[in-house]
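Section 5: illustrative case.
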């Protein structure tokens, strides 16, 4: 089986966003094993009608699972977290998990161009370079 590299964006605008992202990373480690993550950064909402800041983070995973399976796993993970909150304040997004790129193919070009994504990918690549 061949190995695939994917980049994922995590985001939350909950007051508990740091814990939410930590939960998502733990679940991803359990599903995929090793992952690398950029530092979380607070950003203004983009194309979102509510004023709450988002905590965003980029995660890199290497896996043998095919793209179709990864899409289902990540959507299931997102839905699991959303189901944990029975009521949220209007405009609060518990978790947003977006598959940005798979084996070098950018799947979400608009998101990929965002500065926090580019900085997160660069940070992850620098981590890998230092470990070699």
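Designed sequence:
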């Amino acid at each position: 089986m061949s190995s695939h590299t994917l980049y994922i964006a995590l985001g939350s605008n909950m007051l508990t966003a740091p814990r939410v992202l930590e939960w998502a990373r733990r679940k991803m480690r359990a599903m995929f094993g090793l992952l690398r993550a950029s530092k979380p950064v607070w950003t203004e909402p983009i194309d979102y009608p509510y004023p709450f800041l988002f905590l965003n983070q980029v995660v890199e995973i290497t896996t043998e699972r095919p793209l179709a399976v990864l899409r289902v796993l990540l959507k299931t993970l997102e839905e699991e977290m959303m189901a944990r909150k029975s009521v949220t304040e209007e405009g609060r997004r518990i978790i947003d998990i977006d598959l940005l790129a798979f084996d070098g193919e950018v799947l979400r070009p608009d998101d990929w161009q965002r500065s926090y994504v580019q900085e997160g990918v660069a940070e992850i690549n620098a981590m890998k370079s230092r470990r070699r």
